[in-house]
What we know:
By secondary structure, the protein is an all-alpha fold. 81% of the residues lie in helices and 0% in strands.
Amino acid sequence: MILSPGLRKIALTAHVTSSIGWFGAVAAFLMLALFGMLSQDQELVRATYLAMRLTAWFVIVPFAALSLASGVVSSLSTKWGLFRHYWVLLKLVITSGATFLLLVHTQAIDLLAGIAAKTSVLGAYPSGMQLKMVVTSGATLVVLIMLTGLAIYKPRGMTP
C-alpha cells in the first residue's frame, strides 16, 4: 500500500501525536494513582478515582487505539513495512499487547471508580488495587519509552 507523500505525513503525524498523547495521559494517570493511594483526604481520593476512570476511557484508550492503528497504516505505507524489519514487528507486538492489557486493566479502574462513587470511606479501597494502579501505570511509561526508542534508533535487521 503506497500513500502519497501528503497522506503518509498525515498518517505519521497521527501516529506521533497519538503516541505522545498516550504517554502524557499515562503520566497524568500515574500522578492521580499516587495521590489516590497516598492521600488522607477522602474527597481528593474519591475525585482521583473518578477522574482516573474518565482519563482511562476517554483519553488513554482512544490514544492507544489510534497509536496502534496509525502505526500499522504508517508502516504499511513506508519502506519499513509491517513485517520486513524486526523492530517494526516488535513495536506492533508490544503496542498490541499494551493495548490489550490496558483494556483488561480498565476493569480494575472501573471497580475503584465504582467504590468512589458509592462511598467516601478511605478504608473502602483495596490497597492492593491502589498499588496496582501505580505499578501498572509506571510500567506502562517504561514500555512507551522503549517503543519510542525503537522508533528513533530503528535497530538494523530484517525479519526472517
